[in-house]
UniProtKB/TrEMBL annotation, chain A:
One of its GO terms (molecular function) is oxidoreductase activity, acting on NAD(P)H, quinone or similar compound as acceptor. InterPro entries: NqrA (IPR008703), NQRA_2nd (IPR056148), NqrA_C_domain (IPR022615), NQRA_N (IPR056147). Residues 5-98 form the NqrA N-terminal barrel-sandwich hybrid domain. NQR complex catalyzes the reduction of ubiquinone-1 to ubiquinol by two successive reactions, coupled with the transport of Na(+) ions from the cytoplasm to the periplasm. NqrA to NqrE are probably involved in the second step, the conversion of ubisemiquinone to ubiquinol. Belongs to the NqrA family. Residues 269-317 form the Na(+)-translocating NADH-quinone reductase subunit A C-terminal domain. GO terms for biological process: sodium ion transport. It catalyses: a ubiquinone + n Na(+)(in) + NADH + H(+) = a ubiquinol + n Na(+)(out) + NAD(+). Composed of six subunits; NqrA, NqrB, NqrC, NqrD, NqrE and NqrF. This is Na(+)-translocating NADH-quinone reductase subunit A. Its EC number is 7.2.1.1.
From TrEMBL, chain B:
GO terms for biological process: respiratory electron transport chain; sodium ion transport; transmembrane transport. Composed of six subunits; NqrA, NqrB, NqrC, NqrD, NqrE and NqrF. It comes from Mangrovivirga cuniculi. GO terms for cellular component: plasma membrane. This is Na(+)-translocating NADH-quinone reductase subunit B. Its main location: membrane. Belongs to the NqrB/RnfD family. The keyword S-adenosyl-L-methionine does not apply.
Length: 456, 454
């Protein structure tokens, strides 16, 4: 029985530069990178390749000594050209120069009926060695799922409400059979249900209309209604001791494809969006592609911030940087590194604010559809907490984010637990960071809290 | 504005690390950022864009919301001056001139003292200058009588900023409302200059050739009169039609500079609510709590003096409200629970009062008069909504607000020494606000724990 849950709290940030539904197929990035930093919880990475090695798509290149069953594999075939390390030799990127024709490692192939008879152990084995396992994220903590656990349920959010988020249906066009196969496989990994959460205000797409073996739930409301953490909170909240897994829709399809075709195929559709992109549209790439080809002759200005992911939770990358493992969006916005004369008080119709404070009322009268160009300026300086209530207004959960953040700052473990740290990860409180008048790094503080709890 | 920025940029190295004025960096920074919003950008991890509102803009919004009360206050000081000296024909400009002459020095002293201390602390502690005092510096003059000696303003401001705020760690960490701390300081240290019948009307001083034109003038506020002899005494005032509901609503009555006009406070409330800076929950609940408490006192007075209500009915009333209280504890959830809980508490109090047979003239003051007399509206709009010292949770805000309203009327009616209660009510609830939050959050934690199986 499907439930419809209406969320009222939250805030939609309507940015200019939405991707047009046009797909560019033949973009060939030359280099690809695997970034261990995309994953929370890799403790002691062990490299399996060195510069000069050749790999196929699906060849293991890295594993974590803390959890050596999970293999991270090459997204494309080619030659390992560079291994980039940062401070204290932290492993940042493994760059691969791609072959012109991708060669795949071969994994076991199953028919739809074969999958029915597979057991969890076999499934895990194939998932782990092929490199698709990292699609599974564990709640609490938002870290890589541990293959030894049996989650109480698996959650998939079928839509994305982040600023400039791509249309999930469009991303997965033509992948219906893989998606269904993926669901069937996931179903075997949990003793509970597989929940697929859809947008109640949109129409159900062809992709999801025929889907079976899942519990469908519908959500409506402003961002973060599309966040899987918010959805879990309303369907089956995570308590102390519970484990649930989440997968992004692309991950589900990738899992299905692995079993039906026997290959680790990282080909995916991503959106390139943002006010500084000349032609915001969709591109077909492989995971970890370099963005230089996408941005070539495609930027309005030079001083830009390229973000792998959306503007709330994404990561700033260079113009020659690489798309993250989980990202289906690259956003380009202006860099706001300029002084603005009386910028803190002059009335403006161009700035986005949740608060409507003096001089920023104009956007409110412009209506919901007005699109904004927003730069990366901090708009102020860090201060002590003064504003109250705004965090609660953008967090559609029965949680007091302000108190949770203060508990983390005080390193009070009992309080963190009691105030619901198990139910949130960075993306769930991203809007709090956006609206915070005192300009705290809420997401960073939250991760510190999660780490404290996890490793103590 | 490039040339101005160039000047700042040129001076910047002197204030930065290793420069000759290194320790004054934050004073330099405060001025620079006041003129130019800084160019700092978001970090590469976390949100890449930020809301356009910062602390400066938020505080500025409050100051804008305060302007109606300031402008009206200046006029009213002049108006009261001419009224008392018998020169009612004075032009509006004359009134503004006299008002400004009395009020502006207080504003200047308040800002100069407060900002001076803020800058000193910023230099010693090496932290940025906080914007909080921009608001406090305006609030302090508005809750003083126009006749307050300037040295007392300076002393009170210094006390409020240092003891009320900086010892707790600065803006955002204080427990008590800073402006009210200033007023409370004067109230206890120099009561003769801030209360009574003789401080509310500005007569002028000998410096500009003005001298007391009348001897033994009493400029009692409506609150003082109601406290002494009840509301019927309003018509015996030297100016018999002075204390009508309309006049008190508009604010053309003696009182603290910015506090007299309910209308201006409501305009300010509209600005605060539209901009989302002030909590409508608090404003509404303070007014609601005060009205209800006033109404309950009217009710108690009527029953205990004139009406005859049998013990049976009183008991039924008490039992009924206790049942309401229990039902609320068990079955009602969310913000409604907080509201009903406090209301039930007030009803139980009323029941007890009914049994005690208490009655005083002040109880007779019609409930709506409580909303327009004294600093009620000003306190509800500008003081109770201070986000730092108020409750932080939505449920807590309702409890906090209703309690302030109810306590204000309670203190007005029962405090024999001082007819106004809003200041003490807010300060008292400032102290309780964290406790309210603790209980609201505790309920949330309990919900989460009750789900857990481990």
């Amino acid at each position: 029985m499907s439930k419809t849950i209406k969320l009222k709290r939250g805030f939609d940030i309507n940015l200019a530069g939405k991707a047009e539904k046009k797909l560019v197929e033949n973009i060939k990035a030359t280099t690809y990178a695997f970034k261990p930093t995309d994953f929370e919880g890799i403790m002691r990475p062990k490299l399996l390749v060195k510069e000069g090695d050749t790999v196929k798509a699906g060849t293991p290149i890295l594993y974590d000594k803390k959890n050596d069953a999970i293999k991270f594999t090459a997204p494309v075939s080619g030659e390992v050209v560079e291994i980039v390390r940062g401070k204290k030799r932290k492993l940042l990127e493994i760059k691969i120069l791609a072959d012109s024709e991708i060669v795949y490692e071969e994994f076991n192939k199953f028919s739809v009926s074969d999958i029915e008879s597979l057991d969890a152990e076999k499934i895990k084995e194939q998932l782990l060695k092929s490199g698709v396992w990292p699609n599974l994220i564990q709640r609490p903590y938002g870290i890589l799922a541990n293959p030894e656990e049996n989650p109480k349920a698996i959650f998939i959010s079928g839509f994305d409400t982040n600023p400039l988020a791509p249309d999930t249906d469009y991303l997965l066009k033509g992948q219906e059979q893989y998606f269904q196969a993926g669901i069937n496989i996931l179903k075997k990994l949990t003793s509970g249900k597989v929940h697929l959460n859809l947008n109640a205000s949109g129409e159900v797409s062809s992709l999801f209309s025929q889907i079976q073996n899942v519990e469908i739930n519908k959500f409506s409301g402003p961002h973060p209604a599309g966040n899987v953490g918010v959805q879990i909170h309303h369907i089956d909240p995570i308590n102390k001791g519970d484990i649930a897994w989440t997968v992004k829709p692309f991950g589900v399809a990738q899992i299905g494809k692995l079993f039906l075709e026997g290959k680790y195929d990282t080909k995916r559709v991503i959106a390139l969006a943002g006010s500084e992109v000349k032609n915001p549209q969709y591109y077909s790439i492989y995971t970890g592609a370099c963005v230089d080809k996408l941005l070539e002759n495609n930027l309005n200005t030079d001083n830009v911030r390229v973000v792998s992911g959306n503007v709330l939770t994404g990561r700033g990358i260079k113009k020659t940087g690489y798309v993250g493992y989980f990202d289906d969006l690259v956003t380009v916005i202006p860099e706001g590194d300029e002084y603005e004369f009386l910028g803190w008080i002059l009335p403006s119709t161009k700035k986005v604010s949740f608060h409507r404070a003096f001089g920023l009322l104009a956007p409110f009268f412009a209506g919901k559809n007005k699109e904004f160009v927003v730069d990366t300026n901090l708009h102020g300086e860090p201060r002590a907490f003064v504003e109250t209530g705004s965090f609660e207004k953008v967090t559609p959960m029965d949680i007091y984010p302000e108190f949770l953040i203060k508990a983390i700052m005080a390193e009070d473990f009992d309080e963190m637990e009691a105030l619901g740290i198990y139910e949130v990860i960075e993306e769930d409180l991203a809007l709090c960071e956006f609206v915070d008048v005192s300009k705290h790094d809420i997401q960073k503080i939250l991760r510190e809290g999660i780490n404290l709890l996890q490793f103590s | 504005m490039k040339f101005l920025q160039d000047i700042f940029e040129k001076q910047k190295p002197h204030f930065e690390k290793g420069g000759k004025w290194e320790k004054y960096y934050y004073i330099f920074e405060a001025h620079y950022t006041l003129l130019f919003a800084p160019k700092d950008v978001t970090s590469k991890k976390g949100v890449q864009i930020r809301d356009a509102v910062d602390m400066k803009r938020m505080m500025m919004t409050v100051i804008i919301a305060l302007l109606p009360t300031l402008i009206f206050g200046i006029w009213n000081v002049g108006h009261q001056h001419f009224l008392a000296t018998g020169q009612e024909a004075a032009t509006i400009l004359d009134k503004f001139a006299i008002g400004a002459y009395a009020v502006l020095p207080i504003v200047i002293v308040s800002y100069a003292t407060g900002l001076g201390i803020e800058f000193t602390f910023a230099t010693i502690r090496r932290h940025p200058v906080n914007e909080g005092f921009l608001v406090s510096g305006m609030l302090i003059p508005l809750i003083m009588p126009a006749t307050i000696p300037l040295w007392q303003v300076a002393l009170a401001t210094a006390f409020a900023v240092i003891i009320g705020k900086e010892v707790f760690g600065g803006t955002g960490m204080n427990i008590l409302n800073v402006a009210l701390t200033a007023r409370a300081f004067l109230y206890f240290a120099y009561p003769g200059d801030i209360s009574g019948d003789n401080v509310w009307t500005y007569f002028g001083d000998s410096l500009i050739g003005m001298s007391d034109p009348v001897q033994a003038f009493s400029g009692a506020t409506p609150l003082a009169m109601a406290a002494a002899d009840g509301i019927s005494s309003f018509s015996n005032f030297w100016l018999s039609d002075a204390y009508t509901f309309q006049n008190m609503f508009l604010g053309v009555i003696p009182g603290s500079i910015g506090e007299t006009s309910t209308l201006m406070a409501l305009i300010g409330a509209a600005i605060l609510i539209i901009t989302g800076v002030g909590s409508w929950r608090i404003i509404l609940s303070v007014f609601g709590g005060a009205f209800l408490m006033g109404y309950l006192f009217n009710f108690i007075y009527d029953i205990n003096y004139t009406g005859q209500l049998g013990t049976g009915v009183k008991v039924a009333f008490l039992v009924g409200t206790i049942i309401l209280f229990i039902v609320n504890q068990k079955f009602i959830k969310g913000e409604l629970k907080a509201i009903i809980g406090v209301l039930a508490g007030m009803l139980i109090f009323t029941a007890v009062m009914l049994f005690s047979g208490a009655a005083s003239e002040f109880m007779k003051v019609p409930a709506q008069f409580h909303l327009v007399m004294g600093g009620m509206a000003f306190g509800a709009v500008y003081m109770a909504t201070d986000p730092v010292t108020a409750s932080h949770t939505f449920q807590g805000k309702w409890i906090y607000g209703i309690m302030i309203g109810a306590l204000t009327v309670l203190i007005r009616v029962f405090n024999p020494a001082y007819p106004e209660g809003i200041m003490l009510a807010i300060l008292l609830m400032n102290v309780f606000a964290p406790l309210i939050d603790i209980y609201v959050v505790k309920a949330n934690k309990k919900r989460r724990l009750s789900r857990a199986t481990v």
